[in-house]
């Protein structure tokens, strides 16, 4: 795929609306982009699947995964003044929410502009200025002056999902993307790019791709996709949080322009160490910059995929700064290197390589 196409793909995926549980738009776009490379379908949870056109059904099955959803919110109730009381979908820090611009999907499926309401500093006491807000006390204002107007005219009521409102920009001089939801739309775009790279090639494995839903609320979609695919090995793409702006350099394990990150461990998952080292060696052999990480927080779709039937699984992280906030940075080079690493790994796989990760028997 040409760089210009990759840039457009990342921008398009970033701009889509897909809070956890409401990934229809992302699933449909993914299906359209994947149509040239295989047969596609979407299940009742909006998980999207692609069977690579060249699969023959007689080779080991490799599952590739990324998640479609982003952190967001859902309307719990409309307050008497017309503002929305909301609850989070996925992990938010309360300090990152106030004054954010959002889009609320109304009952008619239209996106309505809103803002997380804040009291102007003019009215704040010193204590209020320094306090961390409680999410349950926050509201979203769509420009309505009453509960009736919000419900009847805006068609917003209980159950309407809410996402960050930001348009993705690409800065050619620094090769940086700036926008929302790079966790994990960069992973979704990478899946398309991998299949584009491999189109028409002879492989020794069958490739089954899933863009799974509801990752941010507990890796729920991947629990379903792994059962439908039943893989012998899995590679998970994830937009992974950078620590390069606040960790000392010797400890920073995910950074912009440092290449994809291979995650050894987080709180949900320990990668198969034989497959992990294999991927590290392939990256080194091909001159692909990369890092390894051991995390004391976080969770990934690698966990439900691994736990289903023990298929060797790794996570290839694309570094993203300021995940789970309104605005993120990510670098085109890291995206391209993550795609290339996955492509090189897949091209090298066959039944005996996969078997060598199963305890070396
Ligand atoms: Zn993620």
TrEMBL record:
<dbReference type="GO" id="GO:0004177">
    <property type="term" value="F:aminopeptidase activity"/>
</dbReference>
<protein>
    <submittedName>
        <fullName>Glutamyl aminopeptidase</fullName>
    </submittedName>
</protein>
<feature type="binding site">
    <location>
        <position position="216"/>
    </location>
    <ligand>
        <name>Zn(2+) 2</name>
    </ligand>
</feature>
<dbReference type="InterPro" id="IPR051464">
    <property type="entry name" value="Peptidase_M42_aminopept"/>
</dbReference>
<keyword id="KW-0378">Hydrolase</keyword>
<feature type="binding site">
    <location>
        <position position="183"/>
    </location>
    <ligand>
        <name>Zn(2+) 2</name>
    </ligand>
</feature>
<dbReference type="GO" id="GO:0046872">
    <property type="term" value="F:metal ion binding"/>
</dbReference>
<dbReference type="InterPro" id="IPR008007">
    <property type="entry name" value="Peptidase_M42"/>
</dbReference>
<feature type="binding site">
    <location>
        <position position="238"/>
    </location>
    <ligand>
        <name>Zn(2+) 1</name>
    </ligand>
</feature>
<feature type="binding site">
    <location>
        <position position="324"/>
    </location>
    <ligand>
        <name>Zn(2+) 2</name>
    </ligand>
</feature>
<keyword id="KW-0645">Protease</keyword>
<dbReference type="Pfam" id="PF05343">
    <property type="entry name" value="Peptidase_M42"/>
</dbReference>
<keyword id="KW-0031">Aminopeptidase</keyword>
<dbReference type="GO" id="GO:0006508">
    <property type="term" value="P:proteolysis"/>
</dbReference>
<keyword id="KW-0479">Metal-binding</keyword>
<feature type="active site" description="Proton acceptor">
    <location>
        <position position="215"/>
    </location>
</feature>
<feature type="binding site">
    <location>
        <position position="183"/>
    </location>
    <ligand>
        <name>Zn(2+) 1</name>
    </ligand>
</feature>
<comment type="similarity">
    <text>Belongs to the peptidase M42 family.</text>
</comment>
<dbReference type="InterPro" id="IPR023367">
    <property type="entry name" value="Peptidase_M42_dom2"/>
</dbReference>
<feature type="binding site">
    <location>
        <position position="67"/>
    </location>
    <ligand>
        <name>Zn(2+) 1</name>
    </ligand>
</feature>
């Amino acid at each position: 795929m040409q760089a210009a196409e990759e840039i457009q793909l990342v921008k398009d995926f970033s701009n889509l609306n897909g809070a956890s549980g409401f990934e229809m738009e992302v699933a449909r776009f993914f299906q359209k982009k994947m149509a040239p490379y295989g047969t596609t379908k979407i299940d009742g949870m909006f998980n999207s699947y692609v069977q690579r056109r060249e699969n023959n059904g007689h080779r080991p099955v490799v599952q590739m995964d990324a998640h479609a959803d982003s952190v967001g919110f859902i309307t719990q109730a409309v307050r008497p003044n017309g503002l929305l009381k909301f609850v989070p979908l996925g992990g938010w820090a309360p300090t990152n929410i106030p004054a954010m611009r959002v889009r609320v999907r109304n009952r008619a499926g239209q996106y309505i502009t809103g803002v997380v309401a804040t009291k102007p500093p003019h009215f704040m006491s010193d204590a209020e200025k320094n306090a961390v807000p409680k999410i349950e006390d926050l509201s979203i204002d769509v420009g309505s002056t009453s509960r009736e107007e919000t419900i009847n005219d805006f068609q917003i009521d209980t159950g309407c999902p809410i996402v960050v409102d930001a348009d993705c920009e690409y800065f050619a001089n620094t090769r940086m993307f700036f926008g929302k939801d790079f966790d994990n739309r960069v992973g979704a775009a990478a899946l398309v790019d991998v299949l584009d790279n491999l189109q028409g090639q002879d492989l020794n494995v069958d490739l089954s791709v899933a863009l799974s839903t509801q990752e941010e609320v507990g890796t729920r979609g991947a629990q379903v996709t792994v059962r439908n695919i039943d893989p012998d090995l899995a590679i998970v793409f994830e937009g992974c949080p950078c620590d390069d702006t606040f960790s000392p350099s010797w400890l920073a394990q995910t950074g912009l322009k440092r290449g994809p990150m291979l995650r050894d461990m987080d709180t949900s998952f320990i990668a198969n160490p034989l497959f992990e080292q294999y991927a590290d060696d392939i990256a080194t052999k091909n001159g692909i910059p990369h890092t390894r990480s051991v995390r004391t927080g976080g969770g990934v779709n690698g966990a439900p995929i691994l736990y289903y039937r023990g298929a060797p699984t790794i996570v290839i992280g694309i570094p993203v700064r300021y995940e789970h906030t309104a605005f993120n940075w990510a670098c085109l080079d890291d995206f391209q290197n993550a795609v290339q690493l996955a492509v090189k790994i897949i091209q090298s796989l066959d039944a005996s390589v996969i078997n060598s990760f199963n305890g070396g028997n």
